[in-house]
Specification:
single chain; 5-stranded antiparallel sheet; 6-stranded antiparallel sheet; 17 strands; globular; mainly beta
Length: 188
C-alpha cells in the first residue's frame, strides 16, 4: 500500500524536509480497524505548559502550548499530546467522556495537575506502518499545527469526521490493537 503526496514540502521543527501527504486522497479500504488498547493518564492543564510529542527517534512530532483546562494525554514521557478537533480546538479535560473515553478512575492529583485514567471506546480505520519517508500532515490539528511522521508510522482515519492523523510506530505498537483485519463493509 502506498499513500499519495502533494507536490509540497514542509520543514519539521527538527530541520527535516517532509513531503506533505494528500490526506483527502488516501484509500483506507485495504486497511484494518483498531482502537487504543491501553488506558491513558489524562491531566488537566494549568495553562502555558509546552507539550512536545517526541517520536522514538527523538524527533518532534507535534508542539502545543496549553490553555487552562485543556486535556493533556500522557502515555509516557515522550508520548504526551493535547488532542484537538477537526478545527484545531483543544479538548477540554472536563468534557473527556464526550470525546469517546470511559473514565476508569475518579479525578485525583498528579503532581500539580488534576488527573483521571481513561480508556477509549472509539474505533478507527488504520493503515499500519504505511509511511516510508519523512512526511507531514499539514494543518493536522488546525491551521499551522502540522504533524510530522517518519518511517513505519501508521495513518489513522476517524470514521465519523474523516480526519486523518498519524501514529508513530512505537506509540502504535505500545498503545493500539487491531480489532478487525479488513474494513470492507465494516460500519464503525
Amino acid at each position: 500500500m502506498s499513500v499519495k503526496y502533494l507536490d509540497e514540502y514542509i520543514e519539521s521543527p527538527d530541520g527535516i524536509t517532509c513531503k506533505v501527504l494528500d490526506v483527502d486522497n488516501i484509500d483506507f479500504s485495504s486497511g484494518v480497524v483498531g482502537r487504543k488498547s491501553k488506558d491513558t493518564l489524562v491531566l488537566r492543564a494549568n495553562g502555558n505548559e509546552k507539550i512536545n510529542t517526541i517520536n522514538s527517534q527523538g524527533l518532534i512530532e507535534t508542539t502545543f502550548t496549553t490553555s487552562e483546562g485543556n486535556a493533556i494525554f500522557y502515555n509516557n514521557e515522550n508520548d504526551i499530546y493535547v488532542p484537538r478537533d477537526e478545527k484545531g480546538t483543544p479538548w477540554n479535560f472536563d468534557d473527556i467522556e464526550n470525546y469517546g473515553y470511559e473514565l476508569l478512575t475518579v479525578p485525583f492529583k498528579h503532581n500539580d495537575n488534576l488527573a483521571v485514567r481513561v480508556k477509549s471506546t472509539k474505533m478507527a480505520y488504520l493503515l499500519p506502518e504505511v509511511i516510508d519517508r519523512p512526511s507531514c500532515i499539514k494543518d493536522a490539528f488546525g491551521k499551522g499545527n502540522n504533524q510530522y511522521l517518519y518511517e513505519d508510522a501508521t495513518l489513522k482515519k476517524d470514521p465519523i469526521t474523516g480526519k486523518v492523523t498519524g501514529i508513530e510506530k512505537k506509540a502504535f505498537d505500545e498503545t493500539w490493537e487491531i480489532t478487525k483485519d479488513y474494513i470492507d463493509n465494516y460500519n464503525i
